[in-house]
Amino acid sequence: MTELTNLTVAEIRDGHRAGDFSAVEVAEAFNANVAGAKALNAFIVETPEHALAAAKQADADRAAGTLKPLSGVPIGMKDLFATNGVQTTAASHMLEGFVPRYESTVSQKLWDAGCGMLGKLNLDQFAMGSSNETSYFGNVISPWKRNDGGNAALAPGGSSGGSSSAIAARLCPAATGTDTGGSIRQPAAFTGISGIKPTYGRCSRWGIVAFASSLDQAGPMARDVRDCAIMLENMAGFDPKDATSLDMAVPNWEAALSSDLKGKTVGIPKEYRLDGIDPDIDAMWDAGIAMLKDAGAEVVEISLPHTKYALPAYYIIAPAEASSNLARYDGVRYGLRDLPQGAGLQDMYAATRAEGFGPEVKRRIMIGTYVLSAGFYDAYYTQAQKVRTLIARDFEQAFASCDVILAPTAPSAAFGLGEKMADPLAMYLNDVFAVPASLAGLPAMSVPAALNREGLPLGLQIIGKAFDEQGVLNAGLAIEERAGFTARAEKWW
Amino acid sequence: MAIDQATVRKIASLARIAISDAEAAAMEGELNGILGWVEQLGEVDVTGVEPMTAVIPNTLRLRDDVVDADPLTGGNRRDDVLANAPAPQHGFFGVPKVIE
């Protein structure tokens, strides 16, 4: 059955439709891979019965001639999406044992499209992290190893590290991710897969555990660009239950895929050329520029002058929103309660939150509380929101002279687990290329482009204009066709 | 501007997170590192720049003024709402006594 788990979403969909195999065979093959990959710790909860039930339905629908867009395709669900009757934790102790009585809009759309769920994927706690080392349920391990003969365990990226690890290891053909400041793109780059964060508002946030509401956006992760287009079509769409949901029709992104970039202009932001960056990153970027020229695009240098201020602005805005959003975990309505002997309500709140949140979550709540507190609000938060306006304006001006922007996804390949945990700032800097597009709400994707000298995948990032996911996907496809990235992690788990 | 341990304890109290003296000491260094780094935003000339309020221009919608228009977010779901409560009592959320 190993062949079935090598198929893409499109191949599973089309092969099932054509009668080449049954959906049950596909689900069983992926369930077996999931069950055999405990060493990766990619899943918090496995749901083989959910995948099988959807597969049986898909086979029945095929017999009845009532196939749905994704009938027969099993996927992984990041454990940030509320799933009715299935534990939803955001990888936190706070929500351990929380079993929603409702379904998130995005996951419901995928089930309605015929998908089955293989399980709930591990992540950084409350999606706060860039290496999947802040999960209460343990680190996710990347399937990739360096080619130096060593055996160092590598980070799958974060926060969607369970999603990236599981897809790279063929535990699922696609998965959901969420991206607040790079949490889809950076893990995709670290594991040699693709992932797209659509325009802010394309996918409903309803039922997604909130981190920073003005930045949080769901998107798909998969092995190629076509699969990302297919998944996104089935995740996006207007939802009256999300006040910031875009009331726009969902384009048929898959049908309009085209890697012919004639007449398109690609911008290369000069501020993303960092001093002292790994030469493999710059070499990959230059190769990417050549690929897009080969696809017919014109390439121009652009300037995004406020780039260096994006990360510090993000690390004010995101913690500020998080401190507000996470105020809901009070030990009263759901989740953990720690009630010390004789404690009153205030002590119960403080004890519950001390017990239920991990160190990185506490750190961000504390930063957020401080920058929003009386006397500091204007100096930190208002200033950051003004800088955010300038960052968005940078993009607006750049897009006057180009259609998409090409840049590296991350400043390095995957690092070893533990290598950056001692210094929160060093970890934050890993998102330097990902955060600006998040602050501006723009669609952005990562596609695998090369291996570095250690044999590890590197990703190229394409940033597009608001609502132009098509332009992003098309440029991604042009790179995918030319990079010919077929490397995969050798199985050790 | 550097913050001291008393400020760390004050922030923790505002955030309703209990911290030990050892944690406060560790956080003092971490928070100062992060806050010192974000202070570079002060260099940016923001004269005449409005703070961002909506990343993608959008208008706030009003839903129809109908009771329980959406069954998922409407009323009459007490059991669902209480299903994950740590200490539900008599159809309510239970909390420690707050009035003497």
Would you give an account of this structure?
The complex is a heterodimer of chains A (493) and B (100). Chain A has a domain at 2-259 and 476-483: Amidase signature (AS) enzymes, CATH 3.90.1300.10. In chain A, helix 6 runs parallel beside helix 7 and helix 10 crosses helix 13. Chain A has helices at residues 2-5, 9-18, 23-35, 48-64, 105-112, 161-168, 185-191, 225-233, 279-294, 310-325, 345-356, 359-371, 377-398, 424-428, 435-439, 469-483; strands spanning 43-46, 74-78, 116-121, 174-179, 194-197, 217-222, 265-269, 298-302, 404-408, 444-451, 457-464. The model of chain A has no long low-confidence stretch (mean pLDDT 97). Chain A has 16 helices and eleven strands. The longest helix of chain A is centred in the last third of the chain and has 22 residues, at 377-398. Chain A is globular. Chain A is 37% helix and 13% strand. By secondary structure, chain B is mainly alpha-helical. Helix content of chain B is 33%, strand content 4%. Chain B is built from three helices and two strands. In chain B, a hairpin with a 2-residue loop joins strand 1 and strand 2 (92-93). In chain B, helix 1 crosses helix 2. The longest helix of chain B is centred in the first third of the chain and has 18 residues, at 21-38. The radius of gyration of chain B is 23 Å and the shape is flat. The mean pLDDT of chain B is 92. Classes of the chains: A alpha/beta (493), B mainly alpha (100). Chains A and B meet through helix 10, helix 11, helix 12 and helix 13 of A and helix 1 and helix 2 of B.
Q: Short description, anyone?
A:
The complex is a heterodimer of chains A (493) and B (100). Chain A is 37% helix and 13% strand.
SSE layout:
The complex is a heterodimer of chains A (493) and B (100).
Chain A: H1 2-5, H2 9-18, H3 23-35, E1 43-46, H4 48-64, E2 74-78, H5 105-112, E3 116-121, H6 161-168, E4 174-179, H7 185-191, E5 194-197, E6 217-222, H8 225-233, E7 265-269, H9 279-294, E8 298-302, H10 310-325, H11 345-356, H12 359-371, H13 377-398, E9 404-408, H14 424-428, H15 435-439, E10 444-451, E11 457-464, H16 469-483
Parallel strand pairs in A: 2-3, 7-8, 7-9
Antiparallel strand pairs in A: 1-3, 4-6, 5-6, 5-10, 9-11, 10-11
Helix pairs in contact in A: 3-4, 6-7, 8-16, 10-12, 10-13
Chain B: H1 5-14, H2 21-38, H3 78-82, E1 88-89, E2 92-93
